[in-house]
Specification:
Radius of gyration: 22 Å
Strand order of the largest sheet: 2-1-8-7-9-10-11-12-13
CATH topology of the largest domain: Rossmann fold
Largest sheet: 9 strands, mixed
Mean pLDDT: 90
Distance between the termini: 53 Å
Low-confidence stretches: 77-85
Shape: globular
Number of domains: 2
CATH superfamily of the largest domain: ANL, N-terminal domain
């Protein structure tokens, strides 16, 4: 139905009929600039109807889009109005060239296909359900897969999207109250900020949490306020989420990332998490047919995935293995700690010394000894940080992921 609500951005509503009209006009412009099957279209990923129209315009021509952060030049491409010839992309049917967040090194290009986005939408629909009047709030960056996938799956479902220009607590609270939002995707730091601001979290039918582990205390507080919190695990190479932990299992399986969605098969090999299925980017598969994620984890007897962290983040100290996420969880449980990260620093005695980088809450005062004593109550001796560094904030990507490589 062309009159059905498609987008709300900047206070302006766009119907599917209006979006189709704008996409047809954009397609004519792109075609005049030489865009054809297999071309790549670099575009600033702004939360506007124009951005959505360019997506559909490029795809209608058999081209792919390369969304990039507003104000930043496209990674391998020229600006659209400077294109002299179409650029070629990856596998046939490629819809988007996205870049990994770069948390463990330089960002890598990932070409996602029509099949990837389709099966990702199908798996999410089976996992979360779809209602005709759904409206998904997108306050995540559109040049990352989590944000872009909200637009693609909603277009496939025929449901609506409310787009925000970044994350703002007051804007999200107003959107919950006024925009008919039924779903929202957040990362842990965003949920915590909403809780600290005492925002009413009951309006969305589901709060989908990704981008890394979520402190159980935050989930417990949110659900205690009437929120429905759904944890997921995924990445750029898997077209967003591949596992999902429903609220009914949140307490029984606290710390788990849930079970595999339809269209994804999850396994482990030598402690590393592997994924395969039609949601995985073809160019990301190894010779054995699996995506080797670089994440460490286990799968229990009921099929629930437990993510332990990145292989590259493992700290080897005095012959013992330390997962930084475990130490960070304990540090963040301290009432005066707002955020924390843990890395290994070269050490002549320990090989690597467990080092904590801590952000204190405004007005709080703590020293290394008090935090070390707090950690010693929950952690093994070798897991307790040898040193503490206090900073104003931690380096994170636009999607909220900790840039541990920058800390190192």
């Amino acid at each position: 139905m062309p009159e059905r609500f498609a987008l709300r951005a900047g206070g302006v509503d766009t119907s599917f009929g209006e979006l189709q009209h704008e996409a047809e006009q954009a397609a004519a412009r792109l075609k005049g600039q030489g865009v054809a099957v297999g071309s790549i279209v670099p575009v600033e990923a702004r939360p506007t109807p124009e951005f959505a129209a360019i997506l559909h315009a490029a795809w209608s021509l058999g081209a792919a889009v390369e969304p990039h952060m507003p104000g930043e030049p496209p990674s391998p491409s020229q600006p659209l109005d400077a294109m002299t010839a179409p650029r070629r992309v990856g596998p046939p049917g490629t819809l988007a060239r996205l870049y990994t967040s770069g948390t463990s090194g330089a960002p890598r290009a990932v070409d996602l296909t029509r099949e990837n986005f389709l099966y990702s939408a199908i798996g999410t629909a089976f996992g979360l359900g779809v209602a005709p009047m759904d409206r998904w709030l997108c306050c995540l960056p559109l040049h990352h897969v989590a944000g872009l996938s909200i637009l693609t799956r909603s277009a496939l479902y025929g449901t609506g999207v409310v787009m925000h220009d970044g994350f703002d607590v007051d804007n999200v609270a107003a959107s919950f109250a006024e925009d008919g939002v039924t779903l929202v995707s957040l990362v842990a730091t965003q949920l915590i900020r909403l809780l600290e601001a005492d925002v009413d979290l009951r309006a969305p039918g589901a709060i989908v949490m990704g981008g890394g582990p979520v402190p159980f205390e935050a989930i417990e507080e949110a659900t205690g306020r009437g929120a429905t919190v759904i944890q997921v695990y995924g990445m750029t190479e898997t077209t967003s989420q591949v596992t999902l932990l429903e609220t009914v299992d949140a307490e029984r399986k606290a710390g788990s990332a849930g079970r595999a969605l339809l269209g994804a098969e999850v396994s482990t090999q030598d402690g590393e998490i592997l994924v395969r299925g039609p949601v995985v980017a073809p160019g990301s598969l190894a010779e054995d047919g699996w995506l080797h994620t670089g994440d460490l984890g286990t799968i229990d007897s009921e099929g629930y995935l437990w993510v332990d962290g990145r292989k590259d983040d493992l700290i080897v100290t005095g012959g013992e293995n330390v997962m930084p996420e475990r130490v960070e969880e304990v540090l963040c449980s301290h009432p005066n700690v707002a955020d924390a990260a843990v890395v290994g620093r070269p050490d002549p005695e320990w090989q690597e010394a467990v080092t904590a980088v801590v952000v204190l809450r405004p007005g709080a005062h703590e020293d290394a000894e008090s935090l070390r004593a707090h950690c010693a109550q929950e952690l093994a001796g070798y897991e307790v940080p040898k040193s503490f560094i206090f900073v104003a904030d931690l380096p994170r990507t636009a999607s909220g992921k900790l840039m541990r490589n920058v800390l190192r």
